[in-house]
């Protein structure tokens, strides 16, 4: 299994089930054997830990975004300094690794993920919105393109993604803003590019999802 950690910048893990984003000081668990792609923003610095399930005694069943605590952060830094062939039997290095694994197993999960539907036409529309997060397409517009009613589409969207259309679109917009902000775009420019009418509305939504304002997260 793999744990990818963003020291700085933003990393994303893309799978068939959705995308998982880690701003600075967050990380993503990737289950063993899961086909995925890891992408990073231009100025990102990341570390990926590859862990044998037999060594940890447990394994994540799905991708998860986790908040990395200060203790886990320092343990990861120390782990990355170890030689590849460190002594695994009753050594300082082995004890450090066991403490790290225990910490990783108990990191709090956060909702920085964007689930994708399996319904082909709905997936196509979702990908369109991911590519152009600022577009103002409405649920009515989507329903018309799919040849169905708004109520039917709402139920389908909830069943396929676990989110309402409005909630999914807001999360898609906010997650898309991370790379732009990390690369130096202004909050105002980013807010407008993501389809928000005002900077204040964008900042409020951003803090609601991430727990920080854009300025605090990327200071």
Give a short synopsis of this structure.
With 219 residues, this protein is of the alpha+beta class. It has helices at 53-56, 70-80, 92-105, 120-131, 139-146, 150-161, 165-182, 187-193, 199-210, 214-217, and strands at 2-8, 11-15, 18-22, 26-30, 37-40, 45-50, 64-67, 109-110, 113-115. It has a five-stranded antiparallel β-sheet, with no helix packed on it. Strands 5-2-3-9 form a four-stranded antiparallel β-sheet, with helices on one face.
How is the secondary structure organized here?
Elements: E1 2-8, E2 11-15, E3 18-22, E4 26-30, E5 37-40, E6 45-50, H1 53-56, E7 64-67, H2 70-80, H3 92-105, E8 109-110, E9 113-115, H4 120-131, H5 139-146, H6 150-161, H7 165-182, H8 187-193, H9 199-210, H10 214-217
Antiparallel strand pairs: 1-4, 1-6, 2-3, 2-5, 3-9, 4-7, 7-8
Helix pairs in contact: 2-3, 5-6, 8-9
* Topology pattern, helix = H, strand = E: EEEEEEHEHHEEHHHHHHH
The stretches of 5 or more residues where confidence is low (pLDDT under 50) are none
User: Which structural class should the secondary elements be placed in?
Assistant: alpha+beta
Largest β-sheet summary: 5 strands, antiparallel
Count of structural domains = 2
Helix content: 40-55%
Distance between the termini: 31 Å
Approximate strand percentage: 15-25%
Number of strands: 9
The order of strands across the largest sheet is 6-1-4-7-8
Shape by Cα distribution? globular
SS field, number of helical segments? 10
Q: Could you tell me the radius of gyration in angstroms?
A: 19 Å
- What's the overall average pLDDT, rounded? 89
